[in-house]
Amino acid sequence: MSTAFIDDLPVTRSCLALSNDIMTRICQLLPTQKDRLEACLVHPVWTSPALSVLWDEPAFDTLDQLHQLLSVLREKPRTGSRVRHLRLHTMSDGQFEDTIAHCKYTGNDSSNNGNSNWAAAPQTILGVLRRCEQLKSFACYGFQLKTKDLEAILTLIPSVERLWLLGSPAQEPPAVMTPLINAVLPRLTSLRLDGVYTFQRQFYAVLARRCLALRSLRLSLQTTQADDFFTLCNGHFPALVDLTLVHVQSLRGSHVKEFMRAAPSLTHLRLEGVAQQALSEITYVSNAYFALESFTIVGVIPDSAPVTSSTRLPHLPCFSPEQLTTLTLGQWFMFDMTLLDTFANSPLQHLVLSSCQPLTNENLIHIFHAMNHLQICTVVDPPVECKPFLERYAVHDNNGYTLNRADMDRINEHTVQHRTLTCAHLRALAERISMDLQDLLNIIDETQPGRIAPQEITADAPKNRAQGAPKEKEEELNDLPAWGAIDDLTWYQKPKPNPSVTSSEGSSISGPRQPIPADAYSDQECWGEAKRGVEWASEQLSYAHDMLQRQKAAVFWKKDDETGQWVQLPNNPLPATTTHDTNTRPPSKHNTPRIPQKQTNHPDYSAPQKKQHYKPEAQSSVSPLLLGQVRKNHQNHQNHQSRQSRQSRQNHQRHPSPPDDPLPLLKRQANP
């Protein structure tokens, strides 16, 4: 945070009216301690939340900064009550792994690192803790600590939840965890003891039964007995997700298996100092644990006897843990490729090889070829023979040589330069390799599962797409039976409809269609598999076409209920004309019109010699569209006849006309 930024801040009432919690959250998002210090100078209202965040976790990189911290705490003791997280060492996690954890695990040769460091003195540590009694997490050197010093430290910080001790004494006997420490264990969420300590059996019992909130644990098993370790295996760690075990020369696969049962939520496992004879068995058991996400093996101790094929475990099956994404191998004095073959089928994405001196170029090529899911490979401190090979393909930085998936494919020679192919190129390629063009396109489509290629029709498409064409839904075909169910191919080339023969829905029926010529498309168009259609020369379509013509040429008749006459149904509705009906009384044997024996030219009706009902030869092949049109015309004709009948009655009442047959009337006049 620069001074110009502070000067430009809008010191308004709304900005100063923010609550203390909001201002605390804003100050926590500031990146450095310098920015938090300058936030205290903006306004007196901001001073209190900025100071609480500034002293929440003091950070320093050198011993001079640590000395300044002690001076401030000595002058202003109340400032120490704001501290919640404190690290009395100048080492980060990465530096600690490089200087302390990476050792031969045969003794405490790394413990001399902090003997001459005044920050590791018990007087310095106790002096700081007397002024910072509200600590939630605490980390310090443990090279000069004894049992009484540990008791005093835990007495001064009773509310601590995360404890980290770096190193243990070299000359003095290891510190003993007393019952006072057992009272602190149940509330710890993180315990890291980077050194050799002597644990009583009561410590393992409390750790196994009462540490239900423990999420991270790091222990050394150098002084641990087998019975004590099985006490941990019989415990319960429901929240444990990160486990680091150091000096595990006596550890075997059965031990790891039993401990994983006690920690069902374990996702990160780190083993340091594994014996070579137990390496394959431990890897087998760890790989079978499907919840594991990160697995690290550092410092493999070689056996006295050389490694042979008989000492390996070739009968172990390959598991595929669903969550394992990171594998770290460090300080391997031997490199067994059969061990890495166990992870070939796992979804491993990141592989770290650190200080593996037996590593060769052939081993790297085998790893990149076998692990298909691998995305990043990091090689730290490789052998001299591998450096030219890695410098050619990998990116070098402070973390080592990093290769991504593209670099691995270049090594395996699995990729070539991207090229753009046109339709002409694909045809030439199919001819050169003597393969059908559609088969070649299908192979290309299979290599691109996420791409939907555009559709295209070729001259030989009906012959080659029968196997791979999609199956149409049955209910869609039933909507338009016979000729209406055919998949129209007019989406590519739309022919002009034939006005002579059309259906009610506008679909043209023009007989067999000609195949699309080969020059109907150009090289600039996209390729793809054409839609499936039915050939117009098929027997089914020809039969449907003939039936349609017969239905159109047929004549339909209907018997009128009022007149009893047979009326021919027209194709189109009759025009609305007015007729006079002379029949004013209900029909009887006297006034019922007689049907002539011969067909006349009467405009209203015509009668055949025999009653004929149209019965199609194949009822299943009649188009429902045509039958619907017939029913519609019939209904229109009935409505027309009813309107004519009602209009005739009304006209007769107004202007009565003499009957057609005067004989009954003359008889009634003669015989009154």
TrEMBL record:
Gene3D superfamilies: Ribonuclease Inhibitor
Comp. bias (Low complexity): 500-510, 638-648
SUPFAM superfamilies cross-referenced by the UniProt entry: RNI-like (SSF52047)
Ranges of Polar residues composition bias in the record: 565-586
Start and end residues of each stretch annotated as Disordered: 452-478, 491-520, 565-672
Cited InterPro entries: LRR_dom_sf
Protein name as it appears in the record: F-box domain-containing protein
Organism: Syncephalastrum racemosum
